[in-house]
Amino acid sequence: MSTTIPGAPTAGVDDDDPREHIEVGVLLPTGRLVGRRFASRAEAQAWARPEEGEQVVEWNLVCECAV
């Protein structure tokens, strides 16, 4: 019989851990991000125009580090 203690941490990945939330965007050649959100990297890649210098980028809002 296993006992679970309320409030105790559980093994595995925490779906609500903000360190795991990655944002995807499109960086314009001017160094600014486009003013829209993308649900996935694939969606951002389909929207971006690399021939005009646009780049798909990912970042984490908590640590503000590039992925």
Notes on the protein architecture:
By secondary structure, the protein is an alpha+beta fold. The chain has a domain at 20-63. 10% of the residues lie in helices and 21% in strands. It has one helix and three strands; from the N terminus they run E-H-E-E. The protein has one helix at 41-47, and strands spanning 22-27, 55-60, 65-66. Strands 1-2-3 form a three-stranded antiparallel β-sheet. A hairpin with a 4-residue loop joins strand 2 (55-60) and strand 3 (65-66). The longest helix is centred in the middle third of the chain and has 7 residues, at 41-47. The model has no long low-confidence stretch (mean pLDDT 82). Residues 1-20 are annotated as: Disordered.
Strand and helix layout:
Elements: E1 22-27, H1 41-47, E2 55-60, E3 65-66
Antiparallel strand pairs: 1-2, 2-3
Cα end-to-end separation: 42 Å
Silhouette: elongated
Q: Into which percentage range does the β-strand content fall?
A: 15-25%
Strand runs, count: 3
Helix content: 10-25%
Using the CA coordinates, give the radius of gyration: 18 Å
Which residue ranges are poorly predicted, with pLDDT under 50 across at least 5 consecutive positions? none
What's the helix-strand series? EHEE
Report the major sheet.
Answer: 3 strands, antiparallel
